[in-house]
Every structure is written in C-alpha cells, then in structure tokens.
Amino acid sequence: MRKRAVGFVLPLLALCLSIIVLTSFHRNLRSAGRNPSAPHMVDALAFSWPWNTQALADNPSAPSTVTVLTYHNDVARTGQNLEERILTPANVNFYGFGKLGFLAVDGLVDAEPLYVSNLKIAGHAHNVVFAATEHDSVYAFDADTLAQLWHVTVLGSNEAPSDDRNCGQVSPEIGITATPAIAYDGERGTIYLVAMSKDSAGNYFQRLHALDIATGVEISGSPTTIAATYPNLKGGTSFDPKQYKERASLLLLDGVVYTTWASHCDNGDYTGWIIGYNAATLQQANVLNVTPNGSAGAIWMSGAGPAADETGDIYLLDGNGTFDSRLNESGFPSNGDFGNGFLKLSTDGGKLTVADYFDAHDTDAESRADIDLGSGGALVLPDLKDAQGNTWQLAVGAGKDHRIYVVNRNSMGKFNTQKDNAIYQVINHELAGGIWSMPAYFQNTAYFGAVNDSLKAFSIENAKLVGKPASQTSAVFAYPGTTPSISANGTDDAIVWAVEARGDDAGVLHAYDANDLANELYNSNQAGMRDAFADNKYITPMIANGKVFVGTRSGVMVFGLLH
Predict the structure, then answer these.
(1) Superfamily the domain 33-561 falls into
(2) Could you report the per-residue pLDDT of 499-545, keeping only the tens digit for each?
(3) C-alpha 155: how far from its chain's center?
(4) Could you tell me the residue ranges of all domains in the chain?
(5) Which of 158, 328, 183 is nearest to 250 (CA)?
(6) In DSSP terms, which residues pair with 557 in a beta bridge?
C-alpha cells in the first residue's frame, strides 16, 4: 500500500511543479508588458524560449553589494565591474549563456542601464536595474524576475518629449538621452537625470530631475529648469534649451551633478556649456563655457561622461569649434575658446575653470574638416610607474583623427603650432578608423573599439601604451565602433563585452577573453534567432550579478546563464 501511495504522489508532485512553472512563466510575460508603440518583433519574442524561464527560476535573487551607479561603472570611466562572480570564460558560451528576457519600455534606451543590489522597495529587497527612455520615462525592474517595480514619466503638464529638432542623431523624439547618475548610501538613494520636453506653445525645456530610487517620486526641489548665462567680450551669452541636448552622461562628483551640452547636428548657434547643480538642493552650483567668444565646441563624446580623478578634477574631450591660437603668457587661448581640446577642469572653491588642456597642432584644420576629438570619451588611468620608479598620473582619449592621445594630467601639453611635442604620448596609425566611443581599462590594458576596426587591446608598460595592440578581435565593428565593458572577479575570469551595431536592424553582443581578444567566448548570432535583438548606436553594455544588460530601440535586453 505504501509503495502504491508513493508511486501515485510523485507524478502528482511533478504535475503540480509543472503548473507552477507555467504559471510563473505567464506571470513574467504579463509583468514584462508590451511597448504600446509596437516594439520590434525580435524584442516582442523575448520570453518565447522555454529555457529562459528555467534560468530565472534557477537563479533567485541573492544578497549582493554590486552597484553600477554611473556611466562605465565609476567616475574614472574605466568600464570595469570587478565583483562579477557568476560569469566566467568557462561558462559564457552559446550553449549555456544567452537571452533571458526583455524589459519593455516606451521609447529608445540610449542611456546605459544602472543597477543597485538589495534595494528595499515596498518592504522587500530587490536587485534593481534602472532604465531611462527618450519618451521621458524612468523604469525600475527587478533584475532577477524581470518584473516592473515602478515607472514614472518626468514630463510636465501638457508637455511631450522634444521633436528631433530636424536632426537624425536622436530621433524621432528627444527625452532622456544621457546616462543618469545615482547617489546611494547603502539604504537610500537618488537618481539624477536630464529630460528634454516641449509644450503645446512650442517652448522647449531642459530640466534636471532627482527621483527617489525606491519609489520614483521626485525629491524636494526637483525638478529644476536648466538656465545659465556666462560672461564674454560682448557682455554675456545665454543657454538656449532648444539649441542643445544632454548626450554625454551625467557626472556626480563631490555633491555636484555636472551636465554637459551637445548640439543638434551642428545646427544653429551653439557653444560649449558645462553646468553644475548642488545634488542636495538642485540649486545651480557653477557654470563654465569653453567657447564663450567663439562658436561650436559642444560636448557629447558619443554618450560617454566627463571623467574625474581622485583630486576632483574633471576631464573631457571637446568637439569641433573655435580655438584661439593666439595664446596668453600662461599658454592659454587669449579669449578663452578651447574648441577641439582635451580639457582638464578644476572645481577648486566650487568654481569651474579650465586648469589645463591639450590641443593638437592641426586643431583648426581638424575642426574645419569635422575631424575632432569630441566624438570620443576620456578615461582616467590609475597611477602608473615607469622603469625608474617614477609615478605618472595619466588620462587617455581619442576622437575622429585615428590617433590615441595620452596626457600627463599634471602637464597636458597645451598647444604648439608646429608639432605635438609637449604631450605625453601620441599613437598614430594603429586605429583603422575614428573613435565614436570610449576605451575601457583592466589590468594595465586599454581597450579601444574604433570604426571599421577590430576591438584592440593596448598593453601598458613603463607607464606608456605599447604602440602595437597585444591582441585584437577577428570581428570588425562598423560605425560607431564599440565601447567595451569588462567583468571580472578581482583580477580573475575577466571578460570584455562589446555591442556591435549592425545597421541592419540586428545588433550583436560579443564576449571576449580579456587576456586575448582573439579568443571570442560568445556572440549572440551563434544561437540563431534565440539571442537576437534590435541594434542601437552608442550602446554600452552593463554587467552585474551574472547578467548583461543592453539598451535597444524599445527596451533592455537581459542576457545570462540559461541553466
């Protein structure tokens, strides 16, 4: 009798478990929602693979301290997450790694997703991924179940996202373009973001918002409308909200949120603004214009954010624009115009100033030809020692001219009309195309993904980049190249992740051995349509707790271990 009872109970338990799994699958499908603007079919099928549900069930939320609070992981913009203990070169392959699901939203996701572990929402701890859209929405999702936790719009009453301003760079609408920044103390946090909108009368607005990350509710004093003036030789110049978009990611540094401003397709009368706001009050803290007596010189860096070092100095690459080749006695442009420059900004005394800079000897010709530095992002390297034991503090960046520039942060090189002999290092002829991305750093190696080029790893020896790449990928990345991100467990199990924008409505996620880029571990084409997704440009993958998050035209793809 007992044997017959056991034989009956076991199949019944199996049936019950099957019902529970199927119910969970359909619940997840419903909670993911559907983009009301009819997302791409590939994205709409994100939950159609049965092993995705099993993978989610086998990987429940676990205690973690991993956070990704800003673009490219830290204010130095290294792009490295050194707390990745799940994904390794041994288990990242198309047999066991792939698409887990899709986080559907209401517009383009141009900003890099951000992440907070073990955040308490409505009394329960969640690992949370945040996504911002060009439809002026912000979402919080459970990163493990993929359930939506909250969604808010930051549009004002009777407002809509901006039109594309007759420019195809961000289209069909402009809302939240730049990656936000999060302030988090381990329990509570605030997400800062800039949103563009317009009202029915045709007025345009740029606003800085601060939202509670547990609820999405605006904090006291939020939002604040971006407005600024700056003195020049004519008396002053004013910030015009319709003339700009916030493309470069926000920088949260020492209690100040820094915004930097890009043009729309180089159209109209624009200059180079950096505007800081007190993170606690959202009151304006400081303003700088780097082309106040000239034109152009906007800041966009293909979505990368201004970088910062441990002393609080800020580094960025400025776009094509006016550079005063007549210098004052300190070697600075006589009228304060720093177009097409690698700039160091001081924040001493709460005031923004250009503390140092480098402009190439052919800067004016480059600006006229639109072959400028402004398409790339700056990376602050850790302190490095040369063969004599000297310590060097360096930063690296590249733009459209196929050169890699390495600057000494304490003496950047300024400007020489004949040659670039005062800069710390220039590498020529190793990038096949220009840079519309930014590099990443890991273990004395800088990784660059130029246009129409392989992703290349440049070793650092004796405090200089080796002139030839140590390794490179077999894949060649078309426009806009690629911005790599790195996951590792300390110094072990390092993987370089890169998104390829194919331009044929199909993106590709690549994973490479960080020690040898010729060793590709995975790409999302290997499993046919199983891991397919619609591409987007200037996308930086974010890695946290065994998952890879990739922004698309209608949501965020989630990749991870399938079983």
Answers:
(1) Quinoprotein alcohol dehydrogenase-like superfamily (2.140.10.10)
(2) 999 877 789 999 999 999 999 999 999 999 999 999 899 999 999 99
(3) 23
(4) 33-561
(5) 183
(6) 102, 550
